[in-house]
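Let's practice the habit of predicting before peeking. Look at the sequence and jot down your guess about where helices and strands might fall. Then scroll down.
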Amino acid sequence: MNTLKLVIACNNRDNARAYAAEIGAVLFSSNSTTTDHLPFAAMIVGTTDNLEKAKAVGDAGLYLVCERTIKNQAPHTLAKPDLPGIVGLFPMVAHPVAGASASDAHWRDNHAPLALEVHTRMTHYYQYAILHTFNGPALNGIAACCCATEDDLRHHFYGTPDGEQQILSDIRKFADTKRSPRRVIATAESFVR
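Done guessing? Here is the structure:
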């Protein structure tokens, strides 16, 4: 299922939580005690008709995205006990030679099936393909790879060493690995009404 949404990237987790509750959205909040080294401290996925307020809250970025549910149900449809335990958020800049459109097609059509095969402990998988940047860094997508525990995400994410090499090799086909920001490890919370 594909749905148009806003991704609101925030430097302040408290502001993000309050705004996610206000608009009835899904919140991914960093588990890190400090967030200065991260591209954002929290990420809201939802909808609103107040773009100016979303821009103000989204001080780390505001994006119009196509939310692709690759595995499980869309986050806005999940009941509280079904939310993912731990989420790895992977911001992506498209491969400089392939370009944004071809990179996105590869990510969707080739990488997603490979990820489902290799990431055996992944419980939910969403792709946020960025269609328009209102403010913030020029990103082309954000992957939300979810696991039951942080240990699964950090230490068992690839299933096998060969699987890890397959994923890393494939990522180099559609992403600029030098310009793509670092991963954010987060917890999901739903305020969807």
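How did you do? The chain has five helices and eight strands.
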